[in-house]
Amino acid sequence: SPLNRVSFLRTDHSFLSAALKHPTTSFLLFNNLNPLATDRATLEYVTYKDVEPLIGKDPYSKTEQQMISEYNSTITIPQLLFLGLDERDKHGLTYKVYTGSPYFALDVTPKGNIESEAKSLIQAVQLRGLKFLEDRIQAALPAHSAAIYAHGRALLDWNARNPFCAQCGQPTLSINGGMKRTCPPNDMASLGGAIGGSVGAAPTERPDCATRKGVSNICFPRTDPTVIMAVVSADGKRVLVGRQRRWPQYWYSTLAGFVEPAESVEEAVRREVWEESGVELGRVVIHSTQPWPYPANLMIGAVAQCVPGGEQILLKHDPELEDARWAELDEVEEALRVGTSALGESAQEGYKEGNLRLPAETAIANQLLAAVIRGFMGESPRT
Length: 383
Hints:
Number of strands: 19
Low-confidence stretches: 191-200
Order of helices and strands: HEEEHHEEEHEHEEEEEEEHEEEHEEH
Helix content: 10-25%
């Protein structure tokens, strides 16, 4: 990511207020988790002036403690996230010792008492020729844009999925620049008006909640670990690839799956490969990771090697795969050169119909397979 998240400033509303209105600030809009863009490869940002009618002049004008004490569950608050500072911009906001252009993400999905303002903002950006990308996976974005998109989407999705406290079931309030949800002890909703609207009236005291005491991880975004692995044969000359039923013809990838509770990454790699393909693994080496905001996964990439005699493919355990097969390194190398793309898109020039297809370069599966070709497991590099 090009952004410094400066996470320690998320509770500093003086900083957030300054960041909100700075002329170098960029807002990435999401409508039903779809990002605003010019085209599939280019995100588009708007300014504070554009979003002010929806978010108000300054949603950070009060401290977090004031916001919590004046909480009203009947009022829809636009979900605004502070993403970080792009420190490459030396003309950006300077706050204490930090300088950079601020980035925010904003949910403009029409709902509640902000429906009209949200619809107006959506219409305004669409009149400029912009659109919200509706593809579930944005594989065409360059790396720096993909990182910002993933950050914003994952946090907006988490906030949307957790409007109620997991401990007591009461509505929660987003704080910490969108990075935490808290369960307020009181609710002004019973007063029948806006926050503080009834002079001298006392808010309703809500039931006691364990999340208000001590250190609690219930109120923070979750990240679910998944493993994804390039599997090499015992002799190092072939790679295991598999395909799901819904994928286009000839399209294969590496195997993947979730890490289960009380399971190491290495154990998860061995278990998932055996469950999906019947192949038995020995050595497992972690290679790299990639965030995957669908909704909140961290893909832990590994390269693993079969034990001698463990290469027989059996699809009778887990029915997830339609097919799995061993591909020679020459075939994988050729596919990485001319047969990669996002799912369902055309391959590069030089691809011959019927040959192996693989994920695009932006996918960690591609990088794992390329690592095998380069000799990551100790075999002689091929390129």
